[in-house]
Design brief:
single chain, alpha/beta, 9-stranded mixed beta sheet, 12 helices, elongated, bacterial flagellum biogenesis, nucleotide-binding, bacterial flagellum protein export, ATP synthesis, ATP-binding
C-alpha cells in the first residue's frame, strides 16, 4: 500500500492519493475472485484489473466470499487470468465506487452517451463540469418533496384522455415485444410539453439505436434530449448503470427547477442485468429465477423519479417518468410487471391484439389508468371519459355478437349507443406517429364525437 500524505487539500480530493493492490486467484463465468483487497474494499467499490496483455479493465466489487472479493467487469473478461494484478485507488475523503458521479451540464442536451458519461455520437467531447451528479443516490425525503404539478400535455389523444398525467407522475408502459412500445416512446419524447427529455435505452439491440434516434425520435426530439445507451452486448454492470446514469442526468436538470421527462426502456432488461449480477454473487434464485435483491432494488430506483425538493421559495422541479416493461410471454402478472405496477402511479397497457387490428398506439384503454386523474381534470372532463370508458366496455362485450349478426338493436339503449359509438371512439384514438394532439384538442374532439350521437350540440360544457 502506498504511503498517504498527511494533509490533503480540498481541491485535490478527486486526485488518487494512494493505491491498494491485490491479485486475481480465480475466474469463473462472469465473476473474478480477487485476493488481498477484502479487508480494504466494500461492495460497490471500483477496481482496475490489469490483463495479461497490459490493458486495464474496470470492475466492481459485488460480494465477498471466504476472505476474497468477488468482482464483475464493465467489459469482456477476455485477457484476465490467475495472478493478474488488481488495483484500487484511494481518494481523499471519498471512496472510489460506482457512485463517483457524472459531470452533467447543459452540453449533454442533444447528445448520446454511455452509462459512464462518454459520448457515443462522434460529435466530440462533452464540456467539463465542476459538479458531479451521483449515479447511486437516495430519493428525496418524503416530507421534503413537492407535490405533483399541473397536468402535462403528452401530445397523444389516448393518454391525454384516459391516463391524464401530472408533472412529476410516474407511469409504466407494459407491452410485449413488437407491439409499438419504442414508437410510442418516440412520440412521447417528441410531443410531450417539457424542458428536457432523458432517454435510457437499457439492453437495446445495437442496430435499433440509430433507428430510434432518426425514425422514432427525429431531429426535433433529439434536440431537447439526452440519450444514455447500453446495448444488449454490454456487460450486466453497464446495462444496470444505464438506468442509474439516466436517473442521475434527469435529477440534475430537475434540481435546476426544470420540467423533465424521463423515458426508460426497459425496466425488464434492468432487472435481467440485476439477476445476472445477483446470481454471480451467489444469491439464490427465488421468483422465476430472480434473486430477492432485484425486488429490493426496484423501488430504490423508481422512487427517485417524481417531484424534487422544495426550495426556499416553495418551488421545485418535476421529473415525469415513463418506465417501459417488456412483459414476458404477454403475462401481465409475471413478477417484474406485477412489482413495477404496484410501485408506480399508473400504468398503460399495450396489447398485441389491438396492434394486430391496426390501431396504433395499441393502448388498451380499459386496462390502463392514471392514479392522478380524478384530481387533475374538471368534473365535465371526468364525466366525459367515464362515459366513454363505459361505452368501450359495453362495445367490448357485444362486438362479437355484432360480427356474427346475432345482435338486435332496440333491446338495450345503452348497448345500442355502444354499438354506434364504440368503433368511432376506437377510430378517434388512432393517431399517426407524426401527429400531435394537445390536451384541449383531445377533450374537445371526444366531446364532439359523443355529442354528435346524443344531439347535445357537440360542445363540452
Amino acid at each position: 500500500m502506498a504511503t498517504l500524505p498527511g494533509l490533503i487539500r480540498p481541491a485535490a480530493a478527486a486526485v488518487p492519493v494512494g493505491e491498494l493492490s491485490g491479485r486475481v486467484v480465480d475466474v469463473a463465468g462472469l465473476c473474478v475472485t480477487v485476493a488481498g483487497l477484502a479487508s480494504f474494499t466494500a461492495v460497490g467499490d471500483q477496481v482496475r484489473i490489469r490483463t495479461l496483455d497490459g490493458r486495464d479493465i474496470l470492475a466492481e466489487i459485488i460480494a465477498f466470499r471466504q476472505g476474497h472479493a468477488l468482482a464483475m467487469t464493465y467489459e469482456s473478461i477476455e485477457g484476465i487470468g490467475a495472478g493478474c494484478p488488481v488495483f484500487h485507488d484511494l481518494h481523499a475523503g471519498q471512496k472510489q465506487g460506482v457512485s463517483g458521479g457524472l459531470a452533467v451540464n447543459g452540453s449533454w442536451i442533444g447528445r448520446v452517451v454511455d452509462p459512464m458519461g462518454q459520448p457515443l455520437d462522434g460529435r466530440g467531447p462533452l464540456l467539463p463540469s465542476a459538479g458531479r451528479q451521483q449515479r447511486h443516490a437516495a430519493p428525496p425525503a418524503a416530507a421534503e418533496r413537492a407535490r405533483l404539478g399541473p397536468r402535462i400535455d403528452l401530445g397523444l389523444k389516448a393518454l391525454n384522455l384516459f391516463t391524464t398525467c401530472r408533472q412529476g407522475q410516474r407511469l409504466g408502459l407494459f407491452a410485449g415485444s413488437g407491439v409499438g412500445k419504442s414508437t410510442l416512446m418516440g412520440m412521447l419524447a417528441r410531443e410531450t410539453a417539457c424542458d428536457v427529455t432523458v432517454i435510457s435505452l437499457v439492453g437495446e439491440r445495437g442496430r435499433e439505436v440509430r433507428e430510434f434516434m432518426e425514425d422514432d425520435l427525429g431531429p426535433e426530439g433529439l434536440a431537447k434530449s439526452v440519450l444514455v445507451v447500453a446495448t444488449s452486448d454490454s456487460s450486466a454492470l453497464m446495462r444496470r448503470e444505464a438506468a442509474y446514469s439516466a436517473m442521475a442526468v434527469a435529477e440534475h436538470f430537475r434540481d435546476q427547477g426544470k420540467s423533465v421527462l424521463l423515458l426508460m426502456d426497459s425496466v425488464t432488461r434492468f432487472c435481467q442485468a440485476l439477476r445476472e449480477i445477483g446470481l454471480s454473487a451467489g444469491e439464490v434464485p427465488a421468483t422465476r429465477g430472480y434473486p430477492p435483491s432485484v425486488f429490493a432494488t426496484l423501488p430504490r430506483l423508481l422512487e427517485r423519479a417524481g417531484p424534487g425538493r422544495l426550495d426556499d421559495g416553495g418551488k421545485a422541479g418535476q421529473m415525469t417518468a415513463f418506465f417501459s416493461v417488456l412483459v414476458e410471454g404477454d403475462d401481465q402478472n409475471e413478477p417484474v410487471t406485477d412489482t413495477v405496477r404496484g410501485i408506480l402511479d399508473g400504468h398503460v397497457v399495450l396489447e398485441r391484439a389491438i396492434a394486430e387490428s391496426g390501431r396504433y398506439p395499441a393502448i388498451n384503454i380499459l386496462r390502463s389508468l392514471s392514479r392522478s386523474v380524478p384530481g387533475c381534470n374538471s368534473e365535465d372532463e371526468n364525466a366525459l371519459t367515464v362515459r366513454a370508458r363505459r361505452l368501450l366496455a359495453q362495445w367490448e362485450e357485444v362486438k362479437d355478437l355484432v360480427r356474427l349478426g346475432a345482435y338486435k338493436m332496440g333491446n338495450d339503449p345503452e348497448a345500442d349507443m355502444a354499438v354506434r359509438l364504440g368503433p368511432q371512439i376506437e377510430e378517434f384514438l388512432t393517431q399517426k406517429k407524426t401527429e400531435r394532439v394537445s390536451l384541449e384538442e383531445s377533450f374537445e374532439g371526444l366531446a364532439r364525437l359523443m355529442a354528435a350521437d346524443e344531439g347535445t350540440g357537440g360542445e363540452l360544457t
